[in-house]
Amino acid sequence: MTARILIINGPNLNLLGKREPEIYGSDTLKSIITDCKQHALSLNLDIEHFQSNDEGELITKIQNAHTFQAIIINPAAYTHYSVAIRDALASLNIPKVEVHLSNVHKREAFRHQSMTAGACDAQLCGFGKKGYFLAITYLYELLSE
User: Fold this and answer.
1) Catalytic one among 39, 78, 100, 132?
2) Total domain count for the chain?
């Protein structure tokens, strides 16, 4: 059986490649997800991707993620204040990794606090798109144990 991983991206990540490339890089979300799918395929993993700017849609997707073996989430701005997304993540008994393209700890003080990381097994930040690949590899190793 091929393990299935859900990658969830939050608000404004649909603007990657256009929005603040000096912080987030020049890759589009579509190209990042394409690269993630290729990396996952090399590990015999299946990736499904979901992006929304709407908190409620993100929560519903998380609540319905019981058919996946793991989640990678970049909650974007919701990271810093969404107790609702944190609670939805905590309700799932599968591995979860929080990913951020930029090093949030080198940015504005309000970005240093993550409401959602405590409901995840790990957090990666500051690796750019490679953070997603590291999360996929980590989950592959975890699920293979």
Assistant:
1) 100
2) 1
CATH code (residue 98): 3.40.50.9100
Full residue range of the structural domain in which residue 90 is found: 3-144
What is the value of pTM for the model shown?
0.92
Write the pLDDT tens digit of every residue in 99-128. Answer: 999 877 666 675 557 879 889 999 999 999
What is the spatial distance between Cα 77 and Cα 75, in angstroms, rounded to a whole number? 6
Per residue in 76-107, pLDDT tens?
Answer: 989 888 999 999 999 999 999 999 998 776 66
Active site residue 140: no
Burial 115-130 (b: 16+ CB within 10 A, else e): bbbebbebbbbebbbe
Cβ-Cβ contacts under 8 Å for 99 (sequence gap 6 or more):
72, 73, 74, 123, 124, 125, 131, 132, 135
66 is catalytic: no
Catalytic residue among 24, 78, 132, 140: 24
How many degrees, rounded to 5, is the angle at CA 119 between CA 126 and CA 129? 25
